[in-house]
Structure formats: structure tokens, C-alpha cells
Amino acid sequence: MESVTEPAGCFAAPRLARWLVLLLSVAPQAGQARVEQIDILERAPFALGQSWGEGGAYEKIRGIAHFALDPRAPGNAAIVDLAHAAKDARGRVTFQSEFLLLRPVAARAATLLYDVNNRGNIAMLGQLQGVNPANNDPTSAADAGDGFLLRHGFALLFSAWTWDVAPASPAYRSLVLAPPVAHGPAGVSITGRVANEFTVTAATSVASYAGLRGLTYEPMIPDDPAAVLTARARPDDPRRALAREVWRLLPPADPGGPGRIALDGGFQTGQIYEVSYTARDPFVTGTGLAGIRDLLAWFRDTPFEGMEPPDQLLIFGISQSARAIGRMLQDGLDVDESGRLAFQGAFLQVPGGGGAAGFNSRFAQPTRHPSLLEDHDAPSDAFPFSTAPSRDPVSGVTASRLDRAADAAGRLPKLMIANTSTEFWNRDASLIATLADATQDLAPADNTRIYGFMGAQHYVGRLHGRAPFTQCVSTIDHYLPMRALILALERWTAQGVPPPPSAYPQLGDGTLVSAEIYRALFPTEIGATPPEQPLAEPRLDFGADFTRFGIMTEVPPLHGPAFATRVPAPDADGNDKGGVRMIELMVPIGTYTGWNQRSAAIGFPWATARFDGSFIPFARTAEERAALHDPRPSLAERYASRDDFIARLRQAASAQRAAGFLLDEDVPRAIAENLGRYDRLLAHDPADRGCGYLFAD
To answer: Mean pLDDT score of the chain, rounded to an integer?
Structure first.
């Protein structure tokens, strides 16, 4: 291994091709975060040196960060099982993480933006720039999409933080952490009960029991004779044990992949299966969160390869990744060992109610989280949900998500939390802005803004057919307001400029209601029936050791009363009220909902899709509407002409821009997207049940 420090701005690509590994050793300074060494594996021009607006040309640096955590440091006290991991001669727990940095070449980036990857995948670029990089490795101009973040001069940082990611193809560069393992005295294995819930979308004799695109803890004993397999039709039904002789635990189909299970007669749709057994050697999963903290703190303090540190650091996460940020805040892992904030601002995209309980406990499986159908017994959604203090009427505890998040000087990071309508139905989203019994609204803390992208689904819909659901998916483009808000977050942290006020459905103004009221208000005879209820997670009791030490002794957990959740109220068209008024709702061509029913073919038709909403188009003319008995006015009755529709789009875009949810540069895109769908709907034969007309491609 050769130790080389290249001059700032010098790529020396031919030399880099000859060196397999470049090493930069950086000695830690007093009070610095616990990154002890950085190994540079690759350094090269990004996109062949193409210039990106104010960011100019960028370079890509890939490396390994080496961490050392002191279990005795107060800043690490919240990391479950850290004291049980192997230690070096100094008494520190060591591990490492791969990282990837994209940064401007000619000038120091004022802001470094860290993307908490989602199940090993870079997620931020797909939503904010329009393209997911090929092989999880941004290299070419095509991998940068429209270059939004680069054009605005951000340095972008990615690293590995979680372990339960199923292996991808050899060419795919997943960011996966190998955390330390917890052991008992004298290195004896720690054991515990692990439960894995799974369903199938078609009858099959062999299934995987790991979580979503993930891994799980495998049985300590292969095909453990004491393992238990149960089945039930609904989450709250009693578990029915299947005779041990009719099923078998199988090894992974591919090395390093998830284990499998075989059942005589096959697994069937419409059944929730759960296999439980004894596992051993739990990972210290909280080290992944500490690694994010310490890598950011290192870049905050340390000149790197000829450039001074950025002025501010922001962190961004989508779904699972946003919930990981929530866990960092809850455990105080946004504050480094020296008592300083590792980041000044955070953008939590679609975290639902937070779901932060599954990232820092013994035998934690970060990929698991509940929806209306799945994983109700996963340690995910737990009080407190809000950034302002509130009281749980069942436990009597008063708390907030930020009770441990302030630094030594009492400062908190500035937060933006954004959900779509789908998270209200499937991820307890109302709980971040109401009391736990839904009796009144709860304003967020002063450092927090919360936004609801109404009518949108977890990600912008992309299914061209209805299957495996009953409706076409919602195509509302909430990525556009995300772009405006990430720049607003930067101004808020750097200049103190307040971002748009919180915009979220509320009980007080009637825009947040029970499912019963929603069903009564939703228009009838439009070919869609609202769900009976949203997710209402029960209070879970994993035993007293879980609360104190993060150790589950009750598997499955005992159930207490459910948290009270609410959903956005629909208007006469069935479109959600309150929150951020998306252009698609201000100038609608149909009904957009946060829910979509599962088709009977895949089982559980009573349940909603985990991530997808619905789109039900308006009739084109009054005659078509009358034939369908549709109570919603047709397109022709709403808009006098195509020019009238365009004029209303421009008015809506202007209003959204004035509210701070649309950038000037994105106005043409917003108008073009909505006008394209209007034109394609007018040309679409309503007898055609396909959904391809919603898409330009």
C-alpha cells in the first residue's frame, strides 16, 4: 500500500490507474471525532471533468474511513451492546466504512450534504436529480441526471451504515457495513430469539423469510428443530403453529444471501407467516449511526486533500434512511464525543411517524418496518413521535424526539420532516403533529418544519399497469418541492433565513380526520373504495430489558393499546385537503389518494399497498361522466379549453413558487408534466384499463 497525497485539483488519472490503493493517514486531533484514518481507494474526475453551473467541475473520491469508539465516552452511552464488542489495546471498538465523496474541484463547497443510503443504495440522486446512478456508482454525466445538487455547488457524501442488505451483483457497489459483533464474557456467543415475518404474492413451495431486499439473523442451528412456523390471516389474529415435520429451513440460494424456508403443500397468498428461532452473535447496529456522526464530524473539522472544511453540513434521508436520522436524534447520536453537533440541518423525507425504534437494539433488523399489513411486531414505531414534548396517556411518560439531541451548548440541528399522503395511511404520519390519542394538534419544536405533500405517494408512481394493485398509481411529483426545500434548509442553516412555514393536515381545521369520516366524505361511484382503516401501531412490550438495555426478551412482543392515527380529509373530488397544495391538486385531472388496494391475486385485498397511492381520472366530457355516474365534474366542465388549463397551471405554479415550494428553474418542468398528462388523458380511451397514458415514455 502506497502513501500518496495528490496536490489539490490534480487528478493524475494515469497514475491512479496504476495504484490500486492510495493511503492518506490523518492523525486524530484532541477533541476530534473518532475517525482515525482515511484510506483513499480511488480519485478521479467526475463525468470526465464536465462543469456543473456554480459548482464547476467535480471529482469523485472513494475511500475507507476507520473508526474507533470509546464505550466509556458519554456520547456513546446510547449505543446498545457497544461495551460487549471486541476492543483494541486502548479499550476502543474499531470498525470501518466505505465512503464516496463528490465535490467541486476548483473551490471549497460551502455545504456538504450527506445522503443516508437506503438499503445500501444511493437514493438522494434519483429523487433530487432524476437518475439513480448505474451500479450505485456515480461516474458519468448520465449518472448525474439534471445535476441539480452539483449545479448548486453541494459536496455530496455517502457511506455504509447498515448490515442487513442482500448481496447484489458483483458489479453493483452496494454500501454495506460490517459492524462489530457483541459477545458475552470470554468471547461466549450472545444468543436470542429472532422472529421473521413474511408473505408471498403467489403460491410457492420455497420462500425467503428476510425483510425487504434484506438479510436477517440466521438460525444458530441449521434447520433448528426448535424453530416455530406460524400462520395467520390478519396481523392481530392468533398465530396458528404449523407442524414441524411439514417445513424445513434451507440455506441461502446464493452465498451470503438470505436463508429460505420450504413448506409441504406450499406457502399461500393471504397468509402472514412467521418463523422464529434462536440466533447468535448480534451486531452492534448503533455503530452504523455513530459512524455517520463521526464521518460528518471529521469532515466538519478536517482539511481534506487540499481543501478546508465546509461551512455547514446537512444530512438527508428517504424512508428507512430518514427513520435512521430520527434514531440518531432520539439517541443523541447527532452529537459527537466532543459534544458538538455533527450536522446543522437534516431533511427527513417520508419517515412516517418516525419508526426509529429498530436501529439501535440487540438483534435489530433495520430493514423491517410496519405497514397496514406487515411487520406489526417489529420494534419500529414507538413513543415519542414529535419534536415538541408531549405526554403518552397510556404510559404517563412525557418526552420528545429531541430530548437528547442538543449539543453541549444547547443547540439543536434544524429539521425538515416531509411525508406524503401514503404515510398517513401506512406509516402513522399523523403522530408527529398530534397528541398520541389524537385529541389535539401538536405544533413542532421551533427548530422543526413539517410538510405534507398531499395526494402524493411514497415515491413518484412509475407502474404502467394496475397490477399488483386495483388502481393506477399516483404520479404527483413531490420531488419538485423537495428541491426547493433542500435549498431552503441550506439558507436556514447558513443564513438564518426561515423556510416556508409548516404545512400539514390538522385536526383543528378539519383537514385531518378519522378513517370513518374520510370514507363518509370520499366520493362514491368512482370505482375506488377507501380502506377501512390506516395503520394504527400497537404499543409493543418487548420486556423491561428492551427499555433499559435494548434487549428483547418478549418475542413476539406483548401488545398494548394502539396509537391513534388520522388521515387527510378529502374534498368533493376525493383529493386530500391541508398540507402543501401540489399543482396536481390545484389544477386536477383526477383524484389522487395516498392509498391503493392490493389486488385479490396477490392476497390480502383488504390491505393497502405498502408504498403506492391511487389515481382515478375524471371523465373527459359531461356525457362520459353521466354514463359512468361519476359525481366529479369532467375535464370539459372544469376547463374551457387547453389554453384555459395552461393558464391555470401557470397560476398554480406561481402560487407554489411564492409559497416556497417550487423553484424558478422547475416551473417549466412542473407545467410540462401536468400538461402532458392532461393531453394524454384527453386522448385516452376510458375503456382501456391500462395506466401507460400517465407517462411520457
So the answer is: 94
Return the C-alpha cell found at 134. Answer: 448505474
The residue extents of the domains of the chain are 1-177, 191-280
Cell digits of residue 563: 396509537
| Cβ contacts of 641 within 8 Å, gap of 6 or more | none
Q: How far is residue 585's CA from residue 404's CA, in Å, rounded to a whole number?
A: 39
**Confidence tier at 25 by pLDDT (50, 70, 90):** very low
Residue 133 preceded by cis peptide, ω within 30: no
Long-range contacts of 399-406 (CB under 8 A, 24+ apart): 400/445, 401/326, 401/329, 401/330, 401/354, 401/356, 402/329, 402/330, 402/445, 402/447, 403/330, 404/78, 404/329, 404/330, 404/331, 404/332, 405/329, 405/330, 405/332, 405/334, 405/335, 406/335
pLDDT tens digit sequence for 70-97: 999 999 999 999 999 999 999 999 999 9
- Cα(386)–Cα(321) distance, integer angstroms: 18
Which 3 state secondary structure label does DSSP give 356? Answer: helix
Owner of C-alpha cell 409559497: 659
Residue type at 288 in one-letter notation: G
**Residue 165, pLDDT above cutoff 90:** yes
DSSP state of 405: -
pLDDT at 357: 78
Sign of the dihedral through C-alpha 34, 332, 316, 312 = negative
Q: Cα angle at 617 between 612 and 623, to 5 degrees?
A: 160
Question: DSSP secondary-structure letter at 580?
Answer: B
Q: At what angle do helices 320-330 and 286-301 cross, to 10 degrees?
A: 80
Q: Decide the pairing of beta strands 345-349 and 312-318.
A: parallel
Range from 6-20, 24-38, 304-318 carrying the lowest mean pLDDT = 6-20
Per the CB < 8 A criterion, the answer to whether 428 and 563 are in contact is: yes
Within 10 angstroms of residue 130's Cβ, the number of other Cβ atoms is 14
Query: What residues form DSSP beta bridges with 24?
Result: 38
Nearest C-alpha neighbor of 229 from the set 269, 279, 263? 263
C-alpha cell at 29: 486531533
- Angstrom CA distances, 292 to 134, 288, 314, 316, 493, stand at 24, 6, 12, 12, 19
Q: Which residues pair with 192 in a beta bridge?
A: 279
Residue 22 binned pLDDT confidence (cut-offs 50, 70, 90): very low
- Asked if the peptide bond before residue 179 counts as cis, ω within 30 degrees of 0, the response is no
Residue 224 has pLDDT above 80, yes or no: yes
Nearest to 572 by CA among 628, 631, 517: 631
Report CA-CA distances (Å) from 333 to 282, 289, 291, 415, 474.
20, 7, 10, 15, 36
Q: What is the enclosing helix (H) or strand (E) of 225? A: none
